[in-house]
Amino acid sequence: MELDHLVVGALTLDQGVAWCERVLGLSPAPGGSHALMGTHNRLLNISSPAYPRCYLEIIAIDPAAPGPVGRARWFDLDQPSLQQALRAQGPGLIHWVARVGQMDAALAQMRSEGVDAGEPVAAERGDLRWRIALRQDGRRLRREGLPTLIEWAPGGPHPADRLPASGVSLQRFEARDGLNVWLDTPRGDVRLSLLA
């Protein structure tokens, strides 16, 4: 299991971009839309020697897209408590996603430990293909800072491989008693903690 990406939630993508420019000192690269979930994103390469192939995703509900059918959006984006926090505090770090090589085995291991991490769901954006573990209720795994699991298509592209160097690099990451990350940025050292 490796850190794949950090997730910053925002009420709107424009607010997320403004947050990135203000807090990290630069504008994120274009992302795209997720038809499966009715969300859209912007991306920022934060790879470093300690955390290769790592990026930051700024995500928001896409007002121009229909919502998902029969399930909630990922990362608690449909939850009133998260929407209220984003309204009150602005964009912020809401979750992390871990890359695994064998999704089914990883989920079986988590189930054996009493953790409902969801079921693998196929997703795509452009030519990117992946499977992501999702619960029907869309809830993040808050217990012990557990991540959402992702398995990229074998031999296929990964977002970080295409993103330009950003000048932001992940220096440290902790997900034991909450979620904390330390970034080297054009604005100096920046610490992000889980949005309350």
TrEMBL record:
SUPFAM superfamilies (alphabetical): Glyoxalase/Bleomycin resistance protein/Dihydroxybiphenyl dioxygenase
Gene3D superfamilies xrefs: 2,3-Dihydroxybiphenyl 1,2-Dioxygenase, domain 1 (3.10.180.10)
Ranges for domain Glyoxalase-like: 3-175
InterPro entries xrefs: Glyas_Bleomycin-R_OHBP_Dase (IPR029068), Glyoxalase-like_dom (IPR025870)
UniProt-listed Pfam families: Glyoxalase_3
Protein name: Glyoxalase-like protein
